Amino acid sequence: MAALEGLRALRRLCGVALFLSQLYVLSGRAGSLMTTKHSQPQSTFGKSLTSTSTNTPYFKIAESTEIPSYVTKCPSNGLCSRLPPDCMTCNTNYSCIYGKPATFDCKVKPYVHCLDQNNHEQENFTINMTCQFCWQLATTDYVCTNSTNCMTVSCPRQRYNATCTVRDHIHCLGNRVFPKMLYCNWTGGYKWSTALALSITLGGFGADRFYLGQWREGLGKLFSFGGLGIWTLIDVLLIGVGYVGPADGSLYI
Questions:
Q1: 220: number of CA atoms within 13 Å, CB side?
Q2: Residue 66 φ then ψ, to 5°
Q3: For the chain, where are the E strands, in sequence order?
Q4: Pairing mode, if any, of strands 177-183 and 159-166?
Q5: What residues contact 150, with CB distance under 8 A and at least 6 apart?
């Protein structure tokens, strides 16, 4: 009897130990699950912070590298009064008196740096100019396109439609690019002195006309012996006064 009661007590102790061990295992798994659940949002939040902190400087750099195209036309650390008009904005006064000196208040555009007479950087300055429109400037103050299709030696003298642009350091009112009718003034490289010398010495053989590119007249003078001298004398006179010029219509040099 005593042996049976001892076995029963031993079985009860084993059951209690087994129950406690299972309870311990289950509590450990629950703790591990809780730690993993709390650790995931923290890591995600950390990643979000890292990603935003790396992206922010990127956009700032992209914005700061955008430089306007007009900056390439603006000399750095030069006199503000010598800046091209594309580098500044001015309060233009169209009520100034024509032909009289006028003063305008100007300001440099962003990214443009200029100096005053004392080598101090400044943004606001004044420019002095003559009150006149750009198309009224002297011919030395603007550059125009040239035409090689018109006749310079003609009566009356021919004109052509040119597009003129004011030089960078010149200030004026109105559009800086304007159309203008100009006289034909291009040259093909023919010299007046050479043509006159040929007309005097070898004009009877048509050398002057050949030199000027007038082949038909040159052949006519050659086979007519200069029109028996009369044509030769006439050509000397016409070339001397500049009435007869190159066949391409250009001017003498």
A1: 10
A2: -80, 110
A3: 78-79, 88-90, 101-108, 114-115, 124-130, 142-144, 159-166, 177-183
A4: antiparallel
A5: 158, 159, 160, 184, 249
Would you list the domain boundaries of the chain? 71-131, 142-183, 192-241
- The number of beta carbons lying within 10 Å of the beta carbon of residue 189 is 9
Question: DSSP E strands: which ranges in 11-123?
Answer: 78-79, 88-90, 101-108, 114-115
The residue type of 121 is: E
CA dist., res. 243 & res. 79, Å (int): 50
Instruction: State the Rg of the chain over Cα.
Output: 47
Integer Cα distance of 91 and 103 in angstroms: 10
Listed as ranges, residues in the chain with pLDDT below 50 are 30, 32-64
- Tell me the one-letter amino acid at 23: L
pLDDT in tens, 103-144: 888 998 888 888 888 888 888 888 888 899 999 999 899 999
Q: How many CA atoms lie within 13 A of 214 on its CB side?
A: 21
For residues 229 and 34, what is the distance between their CA atoms, to the nearest angstrom? 124
